[in-house]
Design a protein that fits this description.
By secondary structure, the chain is of the alpha/beta class. It has seven helices and five strands, in the order E-H-H-E-H-H-E-H-H-E-H-E. It is 55% helix and 13% strand. The longest helix is centred in the middle third of the chain and has 13 residues.
């Protein structure tokens, strides 16, 4: 089963000064499953990385996708619908988080790698009582 990475972990992996950097690097280094993110998390992570860390760091993110180190999951029509439902049910979450949850539900994933404990801990997914939040 793939490991689903949210924007916060993608950013933390790139920024050595981020409070989550060490935990994120250790976690990603310890898993043997494919690393996966959503098509919606990439622009958000790329923007933050370029804005705060520069062009070369952003290019490393995109190269990790091109090199197939990080796989990208597109949204289905059902994911768009579920994202809208989640945003209505949980007004504090934005679209990117909602889309990550929708993909995790569709793939029936037990865990999400995220630095956003507040938002993701509040979600009650359709397929289980709660997500296991990593790292």
């Amino acid at each position: 089963m793939p490991v689903l990475l949210d924007t916060g972990v993608l950013y933390a992996l790139a920024d050595r000064d981020d409070a989550w950097h060490g935990r994120s690097v250790d976690y990603v280094g310890s898993v043997r499953e494919p690393l996966l993110t959503t098509v919606t998390a990439i622009p958000e992570a790329a923007y933050l990385i370029r804005d705060r860390l520069g062009r070369a760091a952003e290019q490393r993110l995109i190269r990790s996708i091109d090199d197939r180190e990080l796989h990208v999951e597109n949204l289905t029509d059902a994911d768009w619908t579920r994202s809208a439902e989640l945003m209505r049910s949980y007004p504090d979450i934005g679209f990117v988080d909602a889309s990550v949850i929708a993909v995790a539900e569709r793939l029936r994933l037990a865990s999400i790698a995220t630095t956003d404990r507040r938002h993701f801990a509040a979600i009650r997914p359709r397929h289980r009582e709660a997500f296991e939040l990593r790292p």
